[in-house]
Amino acid sequence: MRTTIKDIAAKTNLSVTTVSLVLNNKPSKISQKTKELVLKTAKELHYRPNQLAVGLIKKRTKTIGLIVSDIRNNFFSSLAKGIEDECRRNGWTLILCNTSDNHQRDIEYIHVLASKSVDGILYCMSVDSTRENFQKSYDLLGALNIPFVMIDRSYPMPNRAIVRLDHIRGGYMATQHLLELGHKRIACVTGPNYLEDSRDRLDGYKKALMEAGIVFDESLIFEGGYDMGSGINAVHSLIGKDFSAIFAFNDMMAYGVYKGLKAHGLCVPADISVIGYDDIFLSEILEVPLTTIKQPIELMGCAATKKLISIIEHEPLGGDTTIFEPELIVRKSTTAYPQN
Ligand code: RIB
Question: For the residues of 287-330, what is the DSSP string, one character each?
Fold first, then answer.
């Protein structure tokens, strides 16, 4: 049976008002001795405030919902860690929802989080979020009047707050690294073309090629879905074409590229150089450690959480964007061309 304020009042022979003032740390003339008695008794009885009751009074539950699209991808588990650490620092609770890249679940979880009376939502939309799908999420969040901050993926919308990386710069840096190694025929495994974050990486790739005087060759571009299978399928599709390097738009697809190349008897980097994107924790410990573009994932999660709490506590800030800078992490999966 859950301990209530009345139980503590009965045990200490104090009024419910006195106990409530102490437990809610309200200013009062209550003696230190009495305060200590209440707190000691509350601990003995394992008292926990009823968050929903608190929420009804303060109209706040100090709970944030996080919607991510693929918890198997360490990008999202690292993101969740950065967010949860910031929530704990501020005394907030986090509810994590994984949509497995199915937009219908984005909608379902927005409803679930609303029913849990979360004060706000951090939202990295599923990979199948076309503009019309995202519009449904955006309209629902507005209808439910739930403050939210987008993380990484989104579409331009009024009053949209978003935290993301400069993906044009990230795509440019990855390509520039391969060009500096002498590669001229660089294949790409992209995310879905309708996602802004993938299009930006491709724009950075094209910018670097153009500056190097290399003509963009559409036949070297394979549209993936940010999953490892896309990397494997990309290699099967690209084999036979003339290329010496592959830029995978995230590390999970780069791992698939490794598998695909191995299936075709090709070695990394001796035959094909590979660069990824995200720098999730496995990339460093692979047999051939992956060269990649680092996203400060936990820092982005922390920044998004700070922004959302600020919007919740101080009124909507309206649309604003926080952009982080990418970092090139050179490991063993890229080498000079010609490789041998
Ligand atoms: O790995 C998941 C990808 O989805 C990341 O690159 C991130 O930017 C998100 O778009």
Answer: SSPPBEEEP-HHHHHHHHHHHHHHHHHH----SEEEEEPPEEE-
Q: What is the pLDDT of residues 141-159, one digit of tens each?
A: 999 999 999 999 988 887 7
Q: Tell me, in angstroms, the distance from the centre of ligand 1 to residue 246's CA.
A: 17
Residue 114 alpha carbon to ligand 1 centre in Å: 26
67's tokens: 């919607």
The verdict on the CB of residue 226 being under 6 Å from ligand 1 is yes
**Cα 93 to ligand 1 centroid, rounded to whole Å:** 25
CATH number of 62-165+297-326: 3.40.50.2300
Strand partners, 321: 162
DSSP 3-state of 173: helix
For residue range 114-139, list pLDDT tens digits in order. 999 999 999 999 999 999 999 999 99
The residue whose CB lies within 8 Å of the most ligand 1 atoms, and thus the one to mutate among 75, 190, 253, 280, is: 75
CATH class given for the domain over 167-295: alpha beta
DSSP states of 131-170 as a string?
HHHHHHHHHHHHHTT--EEEES-----TT-EEEEE-HHHH
Dist. CA 153 → ligand 1 center (Å):
8
